[in-house]
Amino acid sequence: MNSLIAIGAGIAVFGALGAGVGIGIATGKAVEAVARQPEADSKIMKNLILGCALAEATAIYCFVIAIMIIMFFK
Asked: Which one of 8, 17, 33, 55 is least enclosed by Cβ atoms within 10 Å?
């Protein structure tokens, strides 16, 4: 049963991988946008920070669910 708990927690944390990839892609696109239009720097950075915060929140939720799986199903 302990191995199933570990597998469940691993699958729950797997959602954080998507957040990491998403933040990387968003940062790359923001850098490209700033390179094309330097005058729009402040608007691009505001949207980038907001998007990264939302993606990071998703990763934190995945981590919390994994911890809950480990603690409650022991």
From this structure: 17
Q: Measured on CA atoms in the order 35, 36, 41, 46, is the torsion positive or negative?
A: negative
pTM greater than 0.90 (yes/no): no
Q: Where are the alpha helices (DSSP H) in 1-74?
A: 2-13, 15-36, 41-72
Tell me the C-alpha distance between 18 and 25, whole Å. Answer: 11
Cβ atoms of 3 and 46 closer than 8 Å: no
Q: Write the pLDDT tens digit of every residue in 20-57.
A: 898 999 999 999 999 999 999 999 999 999 989 998 89
Q: CATH classification of 2-72, choosing from 3.30.390.80, 3.20.20.370, 3.10.180.10, 1.20.20.10?
A: 1.20.20.10
